[in-house]
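Bumping with the actual sequence this time:
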Amino acid sequence: MRRTRSLALLGGGLLAAACSDPASPPAGSPEASGAPSLSQAAAPGRAPEFVAGELLVKFRAGTTAEGRGAALRAANGQAAERLLTAAMRRGGDAEGLVLVRTPMDVPGALRALRARGEVEYAEPNWIYQHAATSNDTYFTNGSLWGMYGAATTPANQFGSGAAAAWAKAGGYACTGVYVGIIDEGYMFAHTDLAANAGVNPGETAGNGRDDDGNGYVDDVRGWDFDGNNSTVFDGTGDDHGTHVAGTIGGTGGNGTGVIGVCGSGIKLLNAKFLGSRGGTTANAVKAVDYFTDLKTRHGLNLVATNNSWGGGGYSQALKDAIARANNAGILFIAAAGNSTVDCDPGSCYPAEYPDANVIAVASITSTGAISSFSNFGATTIDIGAPGSAIWSTVPTGSRNRVTSGYASYSGTSMATPHVAGAAALYAARNAGASAATIKSAILSAATPTSSLAGKTVTGGRLNVSGF
């Protein structure tokens, strides 16, 4: 069930069917073998978006200040920010990345930079978006079909089988397991989430200090990379992240609302990088590295990050961050996308990165059909999971008075947290299991499903009760 396609064929995202760099890299450069040019991309759909006038640049190790300056002048660029995360340093990268701003058009600036010997790679600052449309009462009244199995009460054979797994192994606890939500913020005070909301154990709330030395002050619940502050939840606009959180870790047994795949014991942490206009590659890299550093710094049993977002084109910077997470033993669980695209000849980033820790998730309906919107790929998308008409937690109310609510959304964004929750449940029941073991268990247990045959690596759907 390994992916067999080369990087030269990869591309894409949740809102973009055709994904490529907006300027062709020079022959022989690192990105020449990894990212197709616009002339090579041929999938229908919405073109990928990037931040106008911004680039991410990786200079070669040992490049002098004079060399950097000469390269930037070639693109009429100014260094706006240096991205050198703790995870990069631990991986032996002393250079990091430079966020460059230029008045030039992005394709022209990329050509100028890629022609310079001082530059290892240069790429757009891609824009990513989430993809969703718009006892535990929703479980008992038949609404929470994604948690059911063929023999549960209520029952749905096309659900994830989570409820059957709870019965099989004595409960829904995921004690001691952490999952990182890379998304919008999430409402950690929600009635159905508060009990499972995690904290950074190295940080003391409200003292105005960076207690654990990771570069972020008071990041108790995580960090908002979009707003560059510690307030990860900013109100009703953070509905998508809150919905994702409820599917992973909605509180079970409280007689209210929904239950997640992990109904208790799990701890959810947040790296917010999606704002009102989406999120950028620069902030996505920081978010992935935030969790990598948090795991290595504190030894948290951080099993996976949930990534219900996509768009843009191939990014070496983001791929490198995912590789650092892989080295730390963190699964990167990614939504396939909502453009009805075959990702094999098309493109679906970040789901399509070939790193060993990536699990790419398509969406199915309550009747077992692949969702009408879902991307797919026989060699690129791993597994299907419930993603149509999924009830979960959301913030409701007004800007000044936010309350706990529930809503039904559809999207591969909703399928992905079912798999993230499954990874956490497996980790809780198999102490010390590696990321590779957890991924293998999930994919090996997939139930063959006709709608997914030839459209996913496994040809099947998530079956939590199967491992």
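The tokens above came from a reply further down the thread. Residues 7-129 form a domain with the Alpha-Beta Plaits fold (CATH 3.30.70.80).
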